[in-house]
Each structure stands twice: as C-alpha cells, then as structure tokens.
Amino acid sequence: MFAQGSWLNEPAEWWFEGEALHVVTDRGTDFWRETHYGFTRDSGHCLGLATAGDFTAELRVQAEYRALYDQAGIMLRLDAERWLRAGIELSDGQAMLGSVLTLGRSDWATGPYAGDPGDLRLRLTVAAGVLRLQASADGWRWGLVRLAPFPRAACYTVGPMCCTPERAGLVVRFSEFRLGPPLGRDLHDLT
After folding, report:
1. Which of 2, 16, 19, 46 could form a disulfide with 161 if both were Cys (CB 3.0 to 4.6 A apart)?
2. Is the CB of residue 103 less than 8 Å from the CB of residue 81?
3. Is 190 part of a structural domain of the chain?
4. What is the per-residue pLDDT for 37?
C-alpha cells in the first residue's frame, strides 16, 4: 500500500523491503509551527496516502531513538497549517509518546511511554470532524492518546512520518499499514 503514497520532503535514503518501508532521516528535519519556539518548520519526511473522506489508519513503527527530538510515527495532513503528527519522540533523555496538533499553530502533548518505544503501533481515526489517536504495544489493546476536533474534508493525507531536528540518520521501519473506513467503535472500546 505504501507504493500508492507520495512524499512530502522525500528523504535521500529510503527503500521498500516486502511490505515494509525503511527510511533514514535527513539532517535538521522537523514539523512545527510557531508555538513556544517561534519558528515554522515543514521539512520532516512524510509518505502520504490520500483518503476518501473519513478513515481509520493503522501503522507499526520500529526505530532506535538516540538524539533529542528523534521522532517517528504517523501524520494526518490537510495542508501546511492543519496537521497532526504523533508517535515516539525522544525528549529529556526519554522516549515519550506524544502528538503535535497544528491548527494554525502547534501544540505539543507528551508523556512517558510504558511499552517498548522501539516497536509501537498507532491507530488514527477521523470521523465527523473529530480525530481519535490510539497506541498499542501489541496490536490488541489500543489505549486512547488523544481526542480532538479536526477540520472536516472530502480528502485527507495520512501516512508514516519521521524527522530528526538535531541530526541525521534515524533508521525507521514502517509496516502493517492499513487504511480504510472509520472503525466506528465506542470511545472506551480498546480493541
């Protein structure tokens, strides 16, 4: 399915291995808009796939995070001013599970991740103007990470994302990507 995507900021080094996508990040890549730091960066790597309106996407992310702000996960995007990036990000010497929601300006919600940060699954559902972000260590139990309003659209772009603001060379393996209609599960259904 990755082969149907198109790159935003194509990395110098990437390849497919079976159904998996491997990416090596370029130096100084990031997604951020204004808040706190005062700058705008839209240079991170994202392989986006177009949706037919509301959707659920799932993705497995495997990486070894080593430097401040190393990050990999999933991205939802309408344009440069309306997007979400979520996944693992190295901050204060610890791998954190977090998300950045940008609606004109970026916020940042993060916290320690109890599972293995080197092997994480993410699920993102957008339906009726609401995004629901979930994470799983095993692919069976999906805890809620974030619930937030997000602009309605006839088409979104969603897919794997990674960047390294402080260096180059984070190697990420993305696999088990699924994209389909919204699951429509109850908010407290963790399956």
Report:
1. 46
2. yes
3. no
4. 74
